[in-house]
Amino acid sequence: MINLYLGTINRSGGSLFCRLLDGHPDIASYPKEVAFPNNEDIAPNMEVITGFPRYIPHYSKTKFEDIFKLANIPKTKIYPIFKWGKERSDPIGVRKNYLEKEFYGKVKTDFDYDNFIELFQQYCTKVETYKDIWNARHKSYFKAWENNRYSGSMKYVVWHDSGGLYILNHKKFFKEFNESYWIYSLRNAYGYIASEKTRLARRHYGSRRFPKIKMPNYLVKKFTRYDLNAHINSWLAAFTRVVLFQDEYGVNERFLVYSYENLLVNTERVMQGICEKTNLTYNECLLTPTLAGNPWGGSSHQGKQSGINPRLAKYFKEVLTEEEISQIDKVCLPLVKFLRESKSPLLDLTKIDKRYLYDYNFQKRYFYDEVKTAMYSFIVNCQRRRYLIKSPDFNSVFAYVYSIVIRIIHLPRLLKQKYLPGVGKQNYT
């Protein structure tokens, strides 16, 4: 079983890639994000945000191991919370008539959680390595989801973790998952920051993910209570780390990097490039995003989409001000320009002059120091949580009133969730 692991940062467009692979006859594509376990030994009180250290555990047959913890599986079923402001993502991603990433459709489906746990325990009786445990997770998951209906031949399994770039013992992935590939979706600075600004603006206005009336981009543009420099630095630090990965593990050998914007406008070329490197048989279905075989309506950010929308590559102009774009250009322009001019299906970032990178020498020095890497990655990303304190103004008053209206509009959805299984989506940001 070949793992196609999208270990990225958040807002990188990795969901689209998984949805493009969804219908391939040889691929099982998870309907939600999946992550290796968090390493809580380094700092157990860390908040779990992007940059929190993931790790690939060591498995030993000679001592007792909690296989559920190793596979990052909740041993008992976690039920959804139907309370405003307390809603969260589903750890399994599938339940009665509910799919985590199906934001706009109504898919009839179900997941047998008890069977999932039973199968996983059964498969783990014969495991020899951690990779065997992880693959047992895959097999039991898709068998429990409507008895392998969405698994294909399962020659490949694709899964996305938007906090995966900062795995501490990354070398273990390439050593233990020796037939698999780590894929990175690289979004340019404008798109990344525009997407993050949109998410934060929704929290500010109380809009959440599924308002009856889509929050206008004009309101996002007016939102200024976030730390733009912190988001710029976060993007630059991630870019540097991707370059270090290519330095260490080769250019597009088993660590593959593609441009998210290029995928939007040159989908066929990018998918053909991925297929060539991974020995995956190319299929026309790779050009159409689906979820459980159904047309995917797009992410929760942009409203309902049909297929792939190339215009999303430039939507940042609708939510970023000219001043914000200018500030991004001051430090990111050489890197953004490189991405814009790179038309090849896969990217070679080692060609970039290192002086344009944010902290290349610093990150390189601690590339294999797990503790210092963990602290650095957490600090550089937690800065994005800064909220700029300002005196209340008209926008603040408007946001308060807007949030009350949105909450009232959402009451029918909350009632549907509680009394009609699978009707009404979990709404969190």
- pLDDT under 50 segments (min length 5)? none
Overall pLDDT: 88
For the report, how would you describe the main beta sheet?
5 strands, parallel
Quote the beta fraction. 5-15%
Distance between the termini: 34 Å
From the 3D coordinates, which CATH architecture would you assign?
3-Layer(aba) Sandwich
Overall, the morphology is globular
Task: Output the radius of gyration.
Answer: 21 Å
Number of helices: 15
Share of helical residues: 25-40%
What is the CATH T-level topology? Rossmann fold
Structure characterization notes:
- The chain has helices at residues 14-20, 67-70, 113-123, 130-144, 170-176, 189-205, 217-222, 228-249, 260-265, 267-278, 322-341, 360-365, 370-382, 394-409, 411-419; strands spanning 2-7, 27-29, 94-95, 98-99, 156-161, 181-186, 255-259, 290-291, 294-295.
- It is an alpha/beta fold and 429 residues long.
- The two termini are 34 Å apart.
Itemize the secondary structure elements and their pairings.
Layout: E1 2-7, H1 14-20, E2 27-29, H2 67-70, E3 94-95, E4 98-99, H3 113-123, H4 130-144, E5 156-161, H5 170-176, E6 181-186, H6 189-205, H7 217-222, H8 228-249, E7 255-259, H9 260-265, H10 267-278, E8 290-291, E9 294-295, H11 322-341, H12 360-365, H13 370-382, H14 394-409, H15 411-419
Parallel strand pairs: 1-5, 1-6, 2-5, 6-7
Antiparallel strand pairs: 3-4, 8-9
